[in-house]
Q: What sequence folds into this?
């Protein structure tokens, strides 16, 4: 291991951001680089029993919120920009092995700013696609043109290279707040942090040039250096990513009892919340397909409804053709040939 190189990898504290950045950190460790992976204290407590790649060091900083806080994106971002930024600064100054490079997730621009103030090279990391990043980078132009995200097929002209096919409904989810237009605070904040991340000395994207070369070329015209190194999960030797949710391995036996291409997998991610009406619509649609399905339903997925009642509702209409778990071992599940759709 090269003791002269010490990389601090800082993911945004969400499962979908932790996973690819952990694969990235593992690849660096395999190349002989000393790596420290930075969690929030809240997440590190939840991951206490999770397996980790050997030789990867973990540290944590506070996110400034109590454990029972729901951690909405804006509240978490604002808290981390104050509480976490001070702890991050102190960590860089006091590290027992000096940090020689920082790789920070795009929604954490304070990490890049602080590193640069201390003379430490800082790279930004985008966990989503190049097309999505380019759309976010183009938000000021979209605002000028009045092309706010909206569930409609109106064409979008404000994202370079996508004028012929991009629709308003295709713009990144999370910005759907048409009533507020370009004054939506989440839209403005996301555009701000994306623009700040593009000013780093380099940008790493979890994508492949063979898939997104046009979008990468447009991003490269606005940033210093762009590296497309994905898909990271396909290159990682680490079989599983530590999950913030307890995985139900029992679903694998149920899944293995089905024929190939006969099961639908449903998961709406680690943060999305739906109404009971939306849950009912999802369930009706799944039943109408005629396929068996595995549905990952977090305890807090459906507003004002317990997970036990949700499982009962699914069982009542679909019986043994459906399996509901709070969280599935997704990478293991997706490695089987049972899926008809996901």
A:
């Amino acid at each position: 291991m090269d003791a002269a190189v010490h990389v601090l990898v800082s993911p945004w504290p969400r499962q979908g951001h932790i996973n690819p950045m952990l694969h990235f950190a593992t690849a660096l460790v395999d190349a002989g680089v000393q790596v420290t992976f930075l969690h929030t204290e809240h997440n590190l407590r939840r991951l206490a029993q999770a397996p980790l790649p050997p030789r990867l060091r973990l540290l944590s900083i506070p996110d400034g919120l109590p454990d029972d806080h729901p951690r909405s994106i804006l509240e978490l971002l604002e808290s981390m920009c104050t509480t976490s930024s001070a702890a991050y600064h102190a960590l860089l100054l006091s590290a027992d092995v000096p940090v020689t490079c920082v790789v920070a997730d795009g929604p954490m621009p304070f990490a890049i700013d602080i590193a640069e103030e201390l003379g430490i090279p800082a790279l930004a990391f985008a966990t989503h696609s190049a097309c999505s990043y380019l759309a976010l980078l183009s938000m000021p132009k979209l605002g000028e043109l009045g092309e706010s995200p909206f569930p409609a097929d109106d064409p979008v002209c404000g994202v370079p290279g996508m004028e012929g096919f991009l629709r308003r409904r295709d713009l990144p989810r999370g910005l759907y707040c048409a009533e507020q237009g370009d004054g939506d605070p989440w839209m403005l904040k996301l555009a701000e942090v994306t623009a700040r991340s593009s000013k780093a000395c380099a940008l790493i994207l979890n994508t492949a040039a063979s898939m997104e070369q046009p979008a990468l070329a447009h991003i490269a015209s606005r940033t210093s250096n762009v590296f497309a190194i994905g898909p990271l999960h396909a290159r990682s030797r680490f079989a599983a990513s530590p999950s913030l949710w307890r995985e139900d391995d029992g679903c694998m036996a149920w899944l293995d009892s089905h024929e190939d291409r006969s099961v639908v997998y449903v998961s709406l991610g680690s943060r999305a919340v739906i109404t009971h009406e939306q849950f009912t619509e999802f369930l009706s649609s799944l039943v109408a397909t005629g396929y068996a399905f595995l549905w990952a339903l977090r305890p807090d997925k459906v507003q004002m409804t317990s997970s036990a009642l949700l499982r009962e509702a699914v069982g009542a209409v679909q019986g043994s053709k459906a399996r509901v778990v709070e969280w599935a071992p997704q990478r293991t599940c997706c490695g089987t040939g049972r899926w008809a759709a996901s």
User: Anything to note?
Assistant: Residues 29 and 196 are 28 Å apart (CA to CA). Residues 175-182 have pLDDT under 50 and may be disordered. The longest strand covers residues 2-10.
